[in-house]
Amino acid sequence: MQHLSPDTRKSPFKGKTGLMRIWNAFRYSFAGLRAAFEHEDAFRQECLLAAVLIPLALFMPTGGAGKALLVGSVLLLLIVELVNSAIEATVDRVSLEHHLLAKRAKDIGSAAVLLALVNLAIVWGLVIFG
To answer: Which reaction equation describes what this protein catalyses (predicted)?
Structure first.
């Protein structure tokens, strides 16, 4: 078995270090947010929901922990939707044919979004109604 040095295990696509790496990571992340907003209806709808719920959470008469839970549940929904969109785009990139494994991957991603929505509803319900 051949042992790989740290240099040979490194991806050829990664070359930047330090501040340039951080800057590139920010640019790629922003490009991902823009792509999701432009191409994913569900992400746009959830961003609208976040634009309403996050300010509402910050003005609710609850302590810092309550506000953090409320905002965190909204951000978790957006994060899970981004991951689901990435899964769907990857599956579609591999093949547009109907395949059981492609359906399974997309359904599991969708289930994750559903659970994030359920989590949001439970957190908001518990914080508001005790």
So the answer is: a 1,2-diacyl-sn-glycerol + ATP = a 1,2-diacyl-sn-glycero-3-phosphate + ADP + H(+)
Residue pLDDT, tens place only, 47-77: 999 999 999 999 999 999 999 999 999 999 9
Residue 60 located in a structural domain: yes
Entry pTM: 0.85
Domains in the chain, number: 1
Supply the range of the domain harboring residue 65. 41-129
45 annotated among ligand-binding-site residues: yes
Is 38 among the annotated ligand-binding positions? no
How many whole angstroms separate alpha carbon 83 and alpha carbon 75?
Answer: 12
- CA dist., res. 11 & res. 25, Å (int): 15
pLDDT (tens digit, 9 = 90+) per residue, 35-52?
999 999 999 999 999 999
Active site residues: 81
The answer on whether 44 is annotated among ligand-binding residues is yes
